[in-house]
Specification:
The complex is a heterodimer. Chain A is of the alpha+beta class. In chain A, 35% of the residues lie in helices and 23% in strands. Chain A has 26 helices and 28 strands. A seven-stranded mixed β-sheet of chain A has the order 8-10-7-11-9-12-13. A seven-stranded mixed β-sheet of chain A has the order 23-25-22-26-24-27-28. In chain A, strands 1-2-3-6-4-5 form a six-stranded mixed β-sheet. In chain A, helix 20 links the parallel strand 17 and strand 18. By secondary structure, chain B is an alpha/beta fold. Chain B has a single domain, classed as 3-Layer(aba) Sandwich (Rossmann fold). Helices cover 23% and strands 26% of the residues of chain B. Chain B has five helices and eleven strands. Chain B has a nine-stranded mixed β-sheet, with helices on both faces. In chain B, strands 5-8 form a two-stranded antiparallel ribbon. Chain B is globular and about 45 Å long. Classes of the chains: A alpha+beta, B alpha/beta. At the A-B interface, helix 8 and helix 10 of A face helix 1 and strand 6 of B.
């Protein structure tokens, strides 16, 4: 095929990008080379619209071993142990083919983690669907959940936490973000930087097929009515092969054979080889006839662009080929020496004895486009005025029951019971808590992890929303008694070519950077997913934060279920009654305007650190952060989990009872303490200038508000558990 | 007591089983599926997981792997063989245990705690367990036990049903059948009661910090019975 401007445009490149390629090469590329450029220069691989802004994120900290730029981030958790973790999106493929899209998303992120030498110990996911009434939602949800489970369960890695939301802005673009944590010894971390000349480059894992060609380019474009035709760009997963690949790689990693290793993810053999060579400032040479292929007569173009799953590229020490081959043979995996490192600083490909590509690595990486896209600043919306009569006919118990059965609040048990969350025998906190917690095998330590996003807040005001999610992640870790350490982010947005979407991106990133800097909660890895858009309609901005924290002794993990009758319930943090953008305002009052709750980073940090002090002193019997649905919703969940009731009274603030109980002010927690500790606890809170309200006491089985309104815990459980199961089985 | 845990390609509860057996005093060895000889063992365990990716039929390919010849001979000469989850599926495929394991009734993977009623305590696995019901954990996609009417009669008559899914008081009814198993069967023996297959995972319930501790009761009792 002759390459010209139109062919380049068909590959997703812009006119001026094609011109730049011709200028850099000083000639017209052939079709294989054009394919390689299009794979390296698309948004998904090149971060061309985002990197200018991502530079400003805080990425360093005393526990950070490796920040962004590798396959995953790495943090130090003491005793020579390190946690490798990252979150990644698989949005576009999951909409086209939910089972395989979600499954390969999980497979891809696990590969990113074990590429670095870490055995995966926990999976999490954040999944977002269109309105429950939308005709595609149910099947997409079923397919995605089945795909996540299908892959993670077979690998034998527990799925310990997650988040699911429904919003009509995802009707045409669902989100599937998968996160994995792995455990590695600090001195056994593997990186992707190639080194040394003439070193053998080996290919291991599955054979290369024609699946997923142009997957990364597809994920860098807007959807239209021809979406069904894109099915062949979705990769097909085989978790069994990945399990073998995991064991084989970890076995090879026990020795000292590997110089560099990189999984073949987006843009397959192309991006993995180029990244390794680029980081090592080397060249790389392949004989493509040596690549194990699944199908006959695959062309160099197809081999280089295939996104077949479960494959790795490794630069070995000379003379270690036999040893490595033996291990991969044992696990029944393909093994082939396909090339070597060179000093040419070029990627040179041979096929059927002729050279089929010859590209300087610099032109693909350092010279890749970077755009300073136009973006629009958003204003803080004016506060809505809620009139007294709006509350008049509302009964607090009815409102609470309605909120507990809201699709975004209700129990997601139907989902997480399909994920194996107990395999590996170290799951201390299973899904349904503030964070998932897994023990570090054979030790007293545990890590906590949580995934969060708040698209509604980000949509109403991206800067505040960006800050809010980081704070929410921080609170979720603190609520289980973990010291927050670092985060990974998955930034899901519409088209960067649209000024408003780009503005949402820029300001969300700004907000999350500000919060993570203030909280000393650095970003160590992440991924950007733009073009979550169908025609002109983009999704609500949805940055997802995956937070990781450390618990020194797993026996001190705090759970949210209320524990003992007559214990005291305290709300920590100040309640101003902010209803704008709350579930209450949006769902009960049908009021969708106004600003999201304000973030006060000083209070956030101070309140969180004080809670950790109380936990350390063993005062806290149960804890839960206050988030969607306000104090009463959070307390109801504590009642449900603990199968206990509570008798509570609104403090004598001047605000309305609905504002107090349903307001979504930030930086708050509910804790349960013993009566005898009350004086000590409140002294600590006062000494640290932390506002608190004494809310009431734990009782047997009823939630009683201001002596007047009553509801049994059984009724709350019903409201909370039934919606999703009924919806899925209808 | 010496035990052996077989690792097939795709096994993923082999480490968990190793941890559990050692915790309760077994000297455990991991055995590779391609080995031919079993080490000297008082107990052989086929662990959970997705041997050979569950391709073709769960447990089918693993039942034909090299080591299984020795396992089958060991079982036929009276050796204790226990298959958990995928291990149960493998034992059914070898013909050492009766019946088959179909996909769960609602076609969904299920991971949760369940209660099981012990039906037969006259064997080395459950003898001396004081409780009549145990709280264990299941995690499977194909745990829906099925067999013909004649077989049901036969295993009933021979007292081969080991565990029923039940409520916490041991009441067996459709309400507490998680996967559609015929008669709520969660676990069966061979005729001689030296081979046991069970869907629940006792190895995941050996620590108060985990989902529960009834697995500890099972293992403590097992090693004492084998001594």
């Amino acid at each position: 095929m002759t390459v010209n401007e139109q062919v380049a445009i068909d590959h997703g490149l812009k006119k001026d990008e094609y011109k730049k390629i011709c200028d850099l090469l000083e000639r017209i590329p052939n079709i294989t080379e054009l394919g390689i450029f299009s794979a390296m220069w698309n948004e998904h691989c090149s971060y061309k619209s985002s990197k200018l802004h991502l530079k400003n994120l805080p990425t360093k900290g005393k526990n950070v071993i490796q920040g962004p730029g590798e396959n995953a981030g790495v943090i130090d958790i003491g005793d020579d142990d390190a946690i490798v973790f990252k979150i990644e999106s698989h949005n576009h493929p999951s909409f086209i083919e939910p089972y395989q899209g979600a499954a390969t998303g999980v497979g891809g992120i696990m590969r990113d983690v074990f590429t670095m030498g870490a055995r995966p110990i926990a999976n999490l996911n954040s999944i977002h669907f269109g309105s429950p009434q939308h005709k595609k939602t149910k099947n997409l949800l079923r397919g995605v959940v089945c795909g996540i489970g299908g892959y993670g369960n077979c690998m034998g890695i527990p799925t310990i936490a997650g988040q699911t939301s429904f919003d009509e802005s995802y009707n045409g673009n669902i989100l599937v973000n998968a996160m994995t944590l792995g455990l590695v010894k600090k001195n056994k971390i593997f990186y992707s930087k190639a080194a040394g000349l003439g070193k053998p480059v080996i290919y291991v894992g599955s054979k290369t097929g024609r699946d997923g060609i142009h997957g990364a380019s597809m994920a860098s474009a807007v959807f239209d009515e021809k979406i069904e035709e894109k099915k062949p760009t979705v990769q097909v997963g085989d978790p069994f092969t990945e399990k073998l690949l995991l064991e084989a790689c970890l076995e090879l990693m026990e020795g000292d054979s590997i110089i560099a290793i990189q999984d073949m993810g987006a843009a397959g053999l192309t991006s993995s080889s180029i990244e390794m060579a680029s980081k090592g400032k080397l060249g790389i040479e392949f004989n493509l006839n040596k690549v194990p292929c699944r199908e006959a007569k695959m062309t160099p173009y197809e081999i280089m662009l295939s996104e077949s799953q479960e494959r790795m590229l490794i630069v070995l020490e000379n003379g270690k080929e036999d040893l490595a081959k033996k291990i991969f043979d044992k696990w029944n995996l393909d093994f082939a020496v396909i090339g070597k490192t060179t000093d040419s600083k070029k990627i040179e490909l041979y096929f059927d004895n002729s050279k089929v590509a010859d590209i300087p690595i610099d032109t693909l990486v350092q010279n890749s486009p970077m755009y300073d896209r136009k973006w629009k600043k958003s204003k803080l919306p004016k506060k809505i005025k809620i009139k007294k009569e709006d509350f008049k006919n509302l009964k607090i118990v009815n409102v609470l029951n309605k909120i507990l059965s809201n699709p975004n609040i209700c129990s997601k048990e139907w989902i997480w019971e399909q994920y194996d969350h107990t395999v590996m025998g170290d799951t201390i906190q299973k899904p349904g808590g503030d964070s998932g917690v897994v023990r570090i095998h054979g030790s007293n330590k545990a890590v906590a992890a949580s995934v969060d996003s708040s698209a509604v807040y980000c949509w109403a005001h991206p800067l505040s929303g960006g800050k809010q999610i980081v704070c929410e992640s921080w609170r979720n870790l603190i609520s289980v008694g973990a010291q927050p350490i670092a985060i990974t982010n998955c930034l899901n947005f519409g088209s960067p070519e649209n000024e408003e979407n780009m503005g949402e991106f820029v300001e969300c990133v700004h907000g999350l950077g500000e919060a993570s800097k203030y909280l000393d909660f650095p970003v160590v890895s992440g991924n950007v997913s733009f073009y979550n858009q169908t025609k002109d309609v983009g999704i609500k901005p949805t940055p997802t934060i995956g937070g990781v924290g450390l618990i020194k002794n797993y026996k001190n993990v705090i759970t949210m279920g209320l524990k003992k009758t007559n214990n005291i319930i305290i709300v920590v943090g100040k309640t101003e009654g902010h209803l704008d953008q709350s579930i209450f305002a949006r769902d009960i009052l049908n009021q969708k305007n106004g600003p999201p709750p304000e973030i006060n980073l000083f209070n956030e940090k101070n309140n969180g650190e004080t809670i950790l002090k109380l936990i350390e002193k063993n005062y806290v019997k149960s804890a839960h952060d206050v988030s969607l649905g306000g104090i009463i919703t959070s307390l109801a969940k504590m009642c449900i989990k603990g199968k206990k009731g509570a008798s509570i009274k609104k403090p004598k603030y001047l605000i309305n009872i609905f504002e107090y109980f349903f307001g979504e002010d930030q930086g708050r927690y509910i804790i349960e303490i013993e009566k005898i500790d009350f004086k000590n606890v409140t002294e600590i809170l006062e000494k640290n200038s932390v506002h608190y309200d004494e809310l009431g006491i734990v009782n047997k089985n009823e939630l009683i508000i201001d002596d007047k309104s009553k509801v049994t815990i059984d009724e709350l459980i019903k409201s909370h558990t039934n919606w999703l199961t009924n919806y899925m089985n209808k | 007591m010496n035990s052996s845990v077989i690792t097939f390609p795709g096994s993923n509860c082999d480490r968990d089983m190793d941890v559990a057996l050692k915790k309760f005093g077994f000297k455990n060895k991991m055995v590779w599926h391609n080995d031919i000889e079993l080490p000297k063992s008082d107990l052989v365990v086929l662990p959970g997981g997705f041997s050979y990716g569950d391709y073709l039929r769960c447990g089918s390919m693993a039942s034909k792997s090299k080591i299984m010849k020795s396992v089958i001979n060991f079982a036929k000469s009276g050796g204790k063989v226990m298959g958990i989850c995928n291990g149960f599926q493998i034992l059914v495929e070898t013909g050492l245990l009766p019946g088959v394991l179909l996909r769960n009734k609602y076609l969904e993977f299920i991971c949760k705690n369940v209660f099981v009623k012990i039906n037969n305590k006259d064997n080395s696995y459950f003898k001396n367990i004081k409780k009549d019901t145990l709280e264990l954990h299941i995690a499977h996609n194909e745990g829906n036990y099925f067999c013909s009417n004649e077989q049901i009669k036969e295993i009933n008559d021979n007292n081969q049903i080991a565990l029923y899914y039940s409520d916490k008081d041991g009441k067996v009814s459709e309400d507490n059948n998680p996967n559609g198993s015929i008669k709520n069967i969660a676990s069966v023996f061979n005729k001689e009661k030296n081979v046991l297959g069970m869907m629940p995972h006792p190895e995941r319930m050996i620590d108060p910090a985990l989902s529960g501790e009834d697995g500890s009761i099972f293992f403590k009792n097992l090693i004492n019975n084998l001594k």
